[in-house]
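Quarterly update from the structural biology core.
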Amino acid sequence: MRPAMPGAASGWERIYAVVRRIPRGRVATYGQVAALCGMPGRAREVGWALAALRAESAVPWQRVLNARGEVSGRGEPVASRVQRALLEREGVAFAASGRVDLAAYQWRPRAKPRVRRAARARRGRSA
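Predicted structure, tokenized:
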């Protein structure tokens, strides 16, 4: 059973926002998603948030793997097969070991454009 976490809804929305940014054909790890949304060390919470998604959700949950590049078992073998099939359809290859080569497929997001926004703001003030 998942523990109730204070502020889980707002934290989970940050998780979903990060996961929506993962492009087709790329994957991220639970820990990577946690760090990107400002919750380092809370990979397990990312898993809980993704497990709570409704089936009709547009969040591409299948693009999140464990730190070894494996589909994490959810207690339902069918869910693992579905996740793998969705990723393979996007062009993500699995080795015979069942792992994804993170060096080849892991998403590496660009730095946040905060610097550019600050530069634009400065230009706007001087104009």
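The chain has one domain: 8-126.
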